[in-house]
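Format notes (please read before filing issues)

Several people have asked whether sequences and structure tokens are stored in separate files. They are not. Every record keeps both together, in the order shown below: the sequence lines, then the token lines. Line labels are part of the format and must not be stripped during preprocessing.
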Amino acid sequence: MARSPLEGPEQLFHFTPAYTPPPADARAHRGAEPGEKLLITGIAGGQGRLIARRVADSFQIAGVDRVPWQGAPHNVRLHVVDLRKRKFEDVFRTERPDAVVHLAFVRHFRSDPEVRHEVNVLGTKKVLEYAIAQGVKRIVVVSSSYVYGALPDN
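Then the structure lines:
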């Protein structure tokens, strides 16, 4: 049986615990080619909006979110779709991104545990699988301290 590309993620991804904002000229910093396509999941959230606006001049941006983003930059192609739905895979096929920034997650610990698992675990797995299948060059997965669960003293 073939080994899943998701086994041994330490070999595929580098996890950085702290966020450092990119410089104003993100293309010069990161080596982006003109016209490179960036897919941002969770684009209508605060971090997604910030990143999209920050790199809007350096990338062709496609965004995915369950809710529309009113006032999105004119060059952002927004796909209103839940990453748990089959239509989400179509976004990868249509957009064919060079890089993905995955921000879509349910963060509140009081939310439905099943929904949290579907979005945070299975949804992230889908993002990684679709990205690998499409030959995406770079994947950035952003998360929060909620991944560690509730602490015993709180």
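For reference, the curators noted about this record: The mean pLDDT is 79. The chain has five helices and five strands.
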